[in-house]
Design goal:
two-stranded antiparallel ribbon, 280 residues, binds calcium ion, binds ligand C2E, single chain
Amino acid sequence: LHHARTEGNGVVTRFAPEMHEVGLRNVELHEELSHALERDEFHLVMQPIVSLAGEGECLEGECLVRWNSPTLGFVPPDRFIALAEQTGLIIPLGYWIIETACRELADFIARGAPDNFKLHINISPLQLQQDDFAEGLLGCLERHNLQGKNICIELTEGVLLDDSTSVLPQLNTLRSAGVTVSLDDFGSGYSSLSYLHSLPFDQLKIDRQFVSDILEDRRSESVIASVLSLANSFKVPLVAEGIENQETGEKLRRMGCVLAQGYHYGRPQPFKNWTVKLGV
Ligand code: C2E
Ligand code: CA
Ligand code: CA
Ligand code: CA
């Protein structure tokens, strides 16, 4: 059921009633989001990244932001990160995420996690465009007695859309300090191959969409096999994410994938829920 509306210029546009509702909810989302940081409504969770070889040890994890709004309830990051990027909130939120992630990681190591544990942090392209980004991250590591090797930054191909020249120098500064770079959601965008060419990286992370149906879909299997051979030729590990069952993990292991992440190994949870003997 659609309303038909005639515009002044005689063009008839059709819109579904729910579009109006979504519009209103976005205004509310926008309003609530603008206060969420100062009201301390965010927290971080961590999801293990396990080795597919040997005992399945866990020496890495990805940190993910969560927003519990008192009025809207749980709002998934897919709904608010893009909005935070549009409004500029991603900059202070991004610094809060880095600061909090380092504090949680230092605490996790103090509780007995290996001191080379590597925490992955998702970084918005807008954050990386800040001239003081690298300096800020390294300062944070120092304050929390962490080393560069404790952090991996996960980047999406949006980084390339930016014409600022400071991105590469910042990545180089970070990598000289031991911070690693993972190319996230690999294969899902239009320019995955061009970012291989333009950015320094230490790891590829293949998009979940290719992992989830690898057992049934030969095409997804082919995509994974190709990305694996790319990763091998660049001599970097491939991380598969979104693994929800044993069979998928087993198949990826046989194909040569070395690191895995997904509900099968552990759902994202607050750091304090992770006991130090991580892994399976
Ligand atoms: P992403 O970086 O690709 O993160 C992986 C997403 O897959 C997470 O969703 C995670 O909870 C989900 N996931 C993990 N294992 C499984 C699985 O086995 N099955 C399924 N169906 N999903 C799985 P989440 O936490 O909702 O985050 C969504 C996206 O929001 C992230 O995608 C990332 O792009 C963005 N995001 C999350 N946290 C941050 C952050 O701290 N900073 C920035 N800039 N973006 C973030
Ligand atoms: Ca990620
Ligand atoms: Ca991803
Ligand atoms: Ca994603």
